[in-house]
Sequence to fold (269 residues):
Amino acid sequence: MDEAAFATPYAPAAIDSSLLRDEIKLKYCEVATSPERGFHFHIGRPLARMLSYPADVVDAFPDQVVESFAGVNNPFSMGVIEPGATVVDVGSGAGFDSILAAKEVGTGGRVIGVDMTAEMRAKAASNVVLVGLANVEFRDGLAEALPLEAASADVIISNGVINLCPDKLAVYREIYRVLKPGGRLQIADVMVQKPVPQDARQAIDLWTGCIAGALLVEEYIDVVRMAGFEDIRIGSMVDVFSGSPHESDAAEFETRGVVFRAHKPLGDD
Fold:
């Protein structure tokens, strides 16, 4: 499926990508180094509870492992990751989901987290040492240019990151490249149920707050199909901004944290 198949052809968001990345790095540097400061979105243990991560698992982690978690839904709710699998976490942040994935794949598997914010990668590496795991590593990179070989991952996860990328089709084509044939993605991301107007899409604060870059649910799923994925299944939709300083902005567009899964077709290199 390509852009011509849709009534409104896909186009990347018209915003300065370099400027946006710089602002995102600044914001998430603060989340990594000063999580107690408070942000326009939920983080840490309260967020993990909101997103229905298993309480016994989360409670067993030291505070440092959970305090900078900033996801929007629970990608693990879309299926158990098999022991021995190779997992890539796109936009791995402080490593909370990467650590959970590492526990699922066991010592015979491996997890590679990719993140562009140095402070997040440093905290993630420290967190892995803190919980005693040896099957996780973190690499510097962009979602649009993953530092990984083609067809090298069994599963790709991501949590609340791809909405921050102006060209989502480029991201999903890159994810497609890295997945093995028959591999799957389990993605949590921000989507809206009312269109975000162009003036709001120019607001950097709304971008870094995970609202301005969100697509309509049907637009988002069309992009995933356009990249070549099949068997797309949508899971829960969470009002993840409820009670946050961005609650009114999010409510205006009926913003939700949505989780879904999809597969790369077998036999497609």
Observations:
- The chain has one domain: 3-8+21-263.
- Residues 242 and 248 are 9 Å apart (CA to CA).
- The longest strand covers residues 179-192.
- The chain is about 35% helix and 20% strand.
